[in-house]
Amino acid sequence: MPRVRRSRKQPPDGWELIEPTLDELDQKMREAESDSHEGKRIVETLWPVFKIHNQKSRYIYDLFYRRKAISRELYEYCLQESIADKNLIAKWKKQGYENLCCLRCIQARDTNFGTNCICRVPKSKLEAGKVVECIHCGCRGCSG
């Protein structure tokens, strides 16, 4: 299968270091999109896609902000080419949102009572032994 070029602009230096991991995540994404949805609830079919999307964005975020392994030019190239989700990364930089699973979990309009998703409630505030699962992305608690 031929590779699709994202833009005519050449990737910056350091691209060859992150390209194998991004290709692997792209392959996982293709598998998740073509995976059978037999026997799953409607909302469960998209959970693997959200998980892989989060992984890819977290990989770029960790390389730039935590490990300082890639240049700002490469980081901005990844955001410009939509390899990583810039809105999700912007939330990760804010206090209290460091482990946010997806942006839908903090949008109040997507819930019945106009509040955040159940996965944003701290585990200490929930009943002991109760398994909580987000209906948007399958997260089991991203508030910490």
How would you characterize this protein structure?
The chain is mainly alpha-helical and 144 residues long. The protein has four helices and no strands. Helix 1 runs antiparallel to helix 2. The longest helix has 20 residues, at 15-34. The model has no long low-confidence stretch (mean pLDDT 89).
What brief labels describe this structure?
mainly alpha; 4 helices
Query: How much is the radius of gyration in Å?
Result: 17 Å
Q: Major β-sheet, in short?
A: none
- Spans with pLDDT under 50 lasting ≥5 residues? none
Distance between the termini: 41 Å
Q: Count the DSSP helices.
A: 4
Summarize the helix and strand pattern as letters.
Answer: HHHH
Strand content: under 5%
**What is the subunit arrangement here?**
single chain
- The global form is globular
